[in-house]
Amino acid sequence: MSGFNKVVSSYQEAMAGLADNMTIIAGGFGLCGIPEGLITEIKHSGVKGLTIVSNNCGTDHFGLGMLLEDKQIKKMVSSYVGENAEFERQYLSGELEVELTPQGTLAEKMRAGGAGIPAFYTATGVGTLVAEGKELKQFNGRDYILEESITGDFAIVKAWKADKTGNLIYRNTAMNFNPMAATAGKISVVEVEEIVEVGELDPNHIHTPGIYVDRIIQGSFEKRIEKITLAKN
């Protein structure tokens, strides 16, 4: 890489520095907007003991679920885990640690981490198991719990378009957790459908400024569908 050009030519270069026992924050929701190639590179690297922060853990044989198959994940911080039988098996057998987090709280943990905010108060989870062991405080007569923010060694993100300095645009619902994840990694790696020259993206439509992005790679995507529902004739 030279100057402000953050484009790398291989997945090995994109994930250089990945090691055992790291924390990885991953964008995506189900199989929508997931960095497929970066996940595959993590699988091929063989690293173990990972903590993965992501809304969910893919499916049994795709997305982050591939890392479960090889037992590369030690802990999942997630809000939804219902699409993965191997996830269930590993959790119930004690092989996988799981920290269930309300979905909005998980998004804010990433956003706050990226903004340098160490913790925040939220009413979500008050009076439930989520609140156990956490500080409780009242504001304007309502109870709130203190939640710590999240940062990771790596953030892996999927975007639609990027320029070479890392300015990003996401497409439709594939945006999901990606903008928050992109800010919260010490090294943020973005897999994109299209890379354009600087100046080609409308500044008014940039979702993630390039200041948050360290590496960009052009990907090719399978875009599987989790559940196909066909209309009855």
UniProtKB/TrEMBL annotation:
GO terms for molecular function: succinyl-CoA:3-oxo-acid CoA-transferase activity. InterPro entries: 3-oxoacid_CoA-transf_A, CoA_trans_fam_I, CoA_transf_BS, NagB/RpiA_transferase-like. Its EC number is 2.8.3.5. Keywords: Transferase. The keyword Iron-sulfur does not apply. SUPFAM superfamilies: NagB/RpiA/CoA transferase-like (SSF100950). It is an enzyme of class 2 (transferase). SMART domains: CoA_trans. It comes from the Bacteria. Pfam families: CoA_trans. The keyword Oxidoreductase does not apply. Coiled coil: none annotated. Gene3D superfamilies: Glutaconate Coenzyme A-transferase (3.40.1080.10). Belongs to the 3-oxoacid CoA-transferase subunit A family. This is 3-oxoacid CoA-transferase subunit A. It comes from Cycloclasticus zancles 78-ME. The lineage of its organism: Bacteria, Pseudomonadati, Pseudomonadota, Gammaproteobacteria, Thiotrichales. The gene is scoA.
